[in-house]
Amino acid sequence: MMLLCLSLSNGGFLEINPMKLVPAIVDGRFKLFESHAILIYLACVFPGVPDHWYPADLFRRAKIQSVLDWHHTSLRRGAATFVLNKALAPALGLPLNPKLAAEGEKILTASLSKLESFWLKGSGKFLLGGNQPSIADISLVCELMQLEVLDDMDRNRVLSPHKKVLQWIEYTKDATSPHFDEVHRVLFKVKEMLKTLRSTESSLNKKVQSRM
Ligand SMILES: N[C@@H](CCC(=O)N[C@@H](CS)C(=O)NCC(=O)O)C(=O)O
Question: For the GST N-terminal domain, which residue ranges apply (predicted)?
């Protein structure tokens, strides 16, 4: 199986995902894009994947699907809009957009409250009250990991009121260690890069102001 790291406009990649988005996989002659479809495929295609990742039981499976669909219209919409417009845009050659960042933060904050009060309700460590993680925990925690690239102050303002969410992120990290750190290595590189960019910009601004 190939996890693709090609340029998104590369002709080869377009054959795999004409939408020009990651993630996408190739398993033999089978090509697939859309993160949740990929997670479901991976949980089913290999024999011996523990049942808790994507349970055979139809009712538990349907509930996981329900979380995954909610993720795309709520948590993802808020987190991706906020992070792109508040921090990530310069790394992609785009301008920051404070208005869109504020809109994204509002959606994200409302989604975090719902996550805490509904999907994480009860005493279980994971989503839907489970004591073991499912593919939904992977998808939703992964979405929130992108907040790492924000300035610490922005990240804390959004995340720190949600203690249960923070605890659940830690449980999911522990349950998937050491792979968790491995898959997020690139993210931490981007975090360092943006930190350097921000501090260079702020010292340049100070120099300009002191000369005015
Ligand atoms: N619904 C898709 C969304 C995929 C998506 O938006 N991917 C982003 C990265 S998270 C991307 O490839 N962005 C590159 C671009 O927009 O050029 C999924 O869940 O796979």
Answer: 1-50
